[in-house]
């Protein structure tokens, strides 16, 4: 939050007619002509802000995105500096404004000039979408998210993404915050224009959330010097399940750990089991058909001759039904598990969730001796590796 300049004390430095900003990844290029009537006695900085509504003076409220110092100003000063960008989290659009700020030692920063941009700015950030729900039980939170996506360009791989659960004293609106991190889990990197679907994420909690605080789920991204919040969702706190008497609670977590291990093993061997079951089922089906045909033929051989009915001294024999013949059904083709080292790019693209860029990277990185080698391919995160292991072999 910054205060407006005093009208009675006009500034000796102002933003000129030409000014702009350009984003490039996690950086922004600030350009501005400065009109200098006399040397400014205090230090001056050029700041870029993102606001919910256009700034027309008064108190500036929003998120400070970037800042550069203005040194050695003359009558014809042009600022051209690249700075780290800290954009607000979430899906909203913002009105951008450049402000010149006087930094007087021991006093609050004061705006001495500003220039706004009419067109709203929306930031392409990794985000959560669809239905989001959670449930806290004992010392863990189970979070369900329909979609986690990276809307950036297809060649733009995200930094490492993490899901964090925070307990905050004040409601979070996408800027800086103070609070207690309850728990977190690393998700991996995500290629641009791709997403993770139907996410069920288990987060171990360091402590029980404080009742009355704001519980916020944050999607954060590593940018080289730390994590930055990219998206967030306010959660309604729920009462934890009542503990069961005895030793059940103490032994519940190890049991859950074993269940998760068993589920991961089942997921890994499912393609092989399905293939074997498919083949065995086909053979059994064929044997049953043969057995049914043999039984029908045996019944026809032991059946008594049709009776002759006498009526008005005429012999009328009942027609004998023609023996039915049954054709064996052809056994369906067994499911073939293709090798990742021999499949074509088209076969890779046929699997849901695999983009053309990732498929090409996988093809170029062959051959693979183990799945750990596949995980090092650009664009293959934890979720993608599971998809590949489910559909292919090495």
Brief account:
The protein is an alpha+beta fold.
Structure description:
- With 394 residues, the chain is of the alpha+beta class.
- The chain folds into 3 domains: 13-122, Immunoglobulin-like, CATH 2.60.40; 127-235, Immunoglobulin-like (Sandwich), CATH 2.60.40; 326-394, DNA polymerase, domain 1 (Orthogonal Bundle).
- Helices cover 21% and strands 38% of the residues.
- It has 5 helices and 19 strands.
- It has helices at residues 248-302, 345-349, 356-364, 371-374, 382-391, and strands at 13-24, 27-36, 43-51, 63-70, 76-84, 93-103, 110-116, 121-122, 127-137, 140-150, 161-168, 179-188, 194-204, 214-222, 227-235, 308-311, 314-317, 338-339, 392-393.
- The strands form 6 sheets. Strands 3, 4, 6, 7 and 8 form a 5-stranded antiparallel β-sheet that branches.
- A hairpin with a 2-residue loop joins β9 (127-137) and β10 (140-150).
Q: In which range does the helix fraction lie? A: 10-25%
The tally of strands reads 19
Shape: globular
The rounded distance between the terminal residues' Cα atoms is 57 Å
Mean pLDDT: 76
The secondary-structure element order is EEEEEEEEEEEEEEEHEEEHHHHE
Based on helices, strands and strand pairing, what is the structural class?
Answer: alpha+beta
Going by CATH, the architecture of the largest domain would be: Sandwich
From the 3D structure, determine the CATH topology of the largest domain. Immunoglobulin-like
Task: Please give the CATH class of the largest domain.
Answer: Mainly Beta
Task: Catalogue the unreliable spans.
Answer: 238-259, 272-286, 302-318, 320-328
